[in-house]
Write the structure tokens for this entry.
Amino acid sequence: MLQLKHLVIILLLLSPGLVLAQSKKTFTISGTIKDKASGETLPAATVSFVELPGKGVTSNSYGFYAISIPEGSYTMLTTYTGYTTDTLKILLTKNMLINKSLASASGQLQEVKIKSSTARSNNILTTPAGVQRLNIKDINNVPVLLGEKDVLKTIQLLPGIVSAGDGNAGFFVRGGAADQNLILLDEATVYNPSHFLGFFSVFNSDAIKDISIYKGGMPANYGGRLSSVEDIQMNDGNNQKFGASGGIGLIASRLTVDGPLFDNKGSFIISARRSYVDLFTGFASDTTTKHSKIYFYDVNLKGNYQLDSINRIFLSGYFGKDVMSFRNSYGLDYGNSTGTLRWNHIFSSKLFSNTSLIYSNYTYDVNIDDNTDNIKVSSAITDYHFKQDFTYYLNASNKLGFGLESTYHITQPGTAVATASSSYNDVFLEKKYALESALYLSDEWNASDKLKITYGVRLSDLSVLGPGNFYTYDKDGNKTDSTYYKSGKIVKSYITPEPRFAASYQLNPNSSVKLSYDRNVQNIHLLNNSAYLSTTNVYLPSSNNIKPEIADQAALGYYHTFHNNGFEFSSEIYYKNLQNQIDYKNGADLVGNPNIEADLLYGSGRAYGWETYIKKKSGKFTGWISYTLSKTELKIPGINNGDYYPATQDQTNHISLVGMYQATKKWTFSADFVYNTGDAVTWPSGKFSVDGAPVYYYGARNSNRLPAYNRLDIGATLLAKKTAKYESSWTFSIYNLYGQSNPYDIIFQADPNNANKTQVQQTTLFKMVPSVTYNFKF
Amino acid sequence: MRIQTPIIILVLLILFSSSCQKVITPQLSNGAPQLVIEGAVSDTTGPYHINISKTVSFYADNTYPNVSGASVTITDQTAGVNDLLTETSTGVYTTHIIVGTPGHTYQLQVVLNGKNYTAVSTMPLPVALDSITFDYTSVKNMIQPVVHYQDPAAFVNYYKYNITVNGVKLNRFQTDEDRLMNGKYINEDLVTDTGAIKKNNLVLVNLDGIDKGAYNFLQEAENIAFYNDQLATPATPTSNISGGCLGYFSAQTVSSKSAVVK
């Protein structure tokens, strides 16, 4: 503890926000905020006081809050979206522990009334620019493909976040690439968030409590990816009573069981899901289908135990897998597994600590077993991660966050094991080792009742470690030097300071302006030159050749709530500068290639845009409209004569509309519409013949556009039965209602019907997909 | 190793019967016609030909205007033999004295409108095709030839395959390298279009041994010709001829086998 005190003193000396002298005697109120019915902790709930306008605190991701205010009598308000606000009169003469349990507002879409002069939307001051938080309730009514509720698909309806297309789990945030999103499930990195090669995400919404999306103004405790953080928290499980819920859909079925453990001191949740299309393929008449299989499953597990009033432990895990095989001769299976062990400890009413040990793994295997070859190709990335976070509630105006983390990455870029009779040799690419560490410190400073500033710095280090051979290459990709490093030897270290700054200023009770600047560094790079977000991904850490990718982003936003907080409006502009972006030489082969780094090109980029969002939050009809105007360009020596060119994900216009209407107690209707400019693509400018086959030649990179994407989905939910003990509902949806032919694949090819012609063929995946899902809960 | 393709087809097939294909005609930019030089010297009996033509726009017929009036020379740099080719028909230039010999290095020189185009290619040592068989796949009407041959362990080898059915050459080619299969006995299914090979057809397969420069071009050309939808950023194949043209020049060995589909 002594060291901690020293650290706090140093922080005090360093931070300009902390030198406000405290004249009156102050006391600390702290506690945990929970859901009354389930005992689930509520992150980002707000605690404020009628008598102290402008002061307030939000609970952390474990529901813990603390605030120090002068002695006196107060009316304490505890608010959380979708829950009834709790009001409590207190007389503060000593430090107090106040745990709050909030009741869910009855009727899921009912208006939440927030009283008195402190009434303010979450967005007005408490949320930094670029942050969006979705409660799982928010997504339940949005219609989705085949009725599989999907957090990652739903966030693509928010401003600044765009889809990589139908059948692709990838998404682009403010012009960033798909691998520049840090997707966390209970703090563990999920490397490949896709099932069925991207048609669905790996997150079973029954097991998820909350998702926070950071597009900018990243808090200093997050790092490692350039574009965004999707911080997904699993449910803790009901510690009041046992329950089960589930659903039967067209693609998959789900079952979740949760309940209390150890006399309600703990709880658990188990949630599992499996697809079952494969059960029907065996009956198919087509032999290809008959001899093929395809399924996925995933399991979420979590348990927690409150040891005493100051110690709580959590153990959570995810395990999922996709298995596919084609004509019994090609097989592909891949999956993520994660595990997190956490210990929450309250050192004092002001100091909260969380310690985490995290494991994360992504593996894929390809099996080829036809009459000529038998070979198995595998690749994997494994992380062992330690993380220590502290929250120090210094006084009513300052909340400090500091901590450190360290991740040991082991990547296996590829092995191939073949039988003796196979045409292939065994290939073992060297494993790559890296240690990624960071120290961070930040202060949330309520400088005045109108101005809130969060500032901090993250110091990150990536150390490339042996054992292994490290090469240098000349411009043409020929090896010029090779050095062997022993196990544990540091080959190269990259230390990068990452400043983070976010400020909000309240103009009046209903509006505020926000400003942010942040730098992010990325040291794990996904290599993929296929048009699809493929599962056969190669992950490489930074090395002597690959430098850390760096992004600097500045954003400015305006927020406004009106109609008694029933509407929320926001508008933001951002500018992002990117360094050390990776591209590939023509014909680069990323599979089983020991000199993969010789095939890479490096350059810079810039992205800027304007996002507007208006949301109706209360009443029978709720929903939002989001519009983004943006540009993303890359500049890479060796491509396009070294001039700026549009990145693939440069979608100029992006519009989404989401509406939900609670018509009666039984029926809820919903619809969403999406429109965006097509991706930038490279199409032929002519053709010539090679060995009789037409081959195409190309002009400037990404100078063509896919047709604009648009789609309307509709859904309806029928609450079939609702009693105190049992609840069941039907969800009907139609994806792509008007059957728009959005391209999934476009190929330029010889015309199969006319040997003297070439043609362009487009494949569309989803033209009007209806679905029905039955959900139950008891 | 093209692993992803069948899996994607499979997903489409099984999961999404609502998927559909259609021919579209998006507007494409028409680049200025480019010069294309294509030709080879092989270890089979000459004469050998160099073909010079121009590109056409994507929606035009596959008829490429030939270019005449070029001065074309092939030099056997190993033997020190120089051969000035004669334009035997429009855009087709034919050798007189050059004899293709494994291990020899050949230089192609084309002078056209005052511009110089040159390429160098070394003929590898021959690799013999042992036999071909057929893979009667479970996909309806799809019969694939399977090649069988020994890859020499002592060398880095690059290959190209062509298929001829009943005397008609298919407008398709396929490349291979021994990076992942050096020294192995190779059994490989060749890609064909559905229905291209039928029962009782006489199928001839050519195995060409090519050098790295020609392979790099052909491998990129193969991806562009047949798999351009799978490339995140398709680009013009890099020619092994310098001077600013498309196409390739290859000194290659040829081994062929034929069989009747049963």
Observations:
- The domain at 35-122 of chain B is CATH 2.60.40 (Immunoglobulin-like).
- The two ends of chain B are 28 Å apart (CA to CA).
- The longest helix of chain B spans residues 212-227.
- Chain B touches chain A through 90 residues (CB under 8 Å).
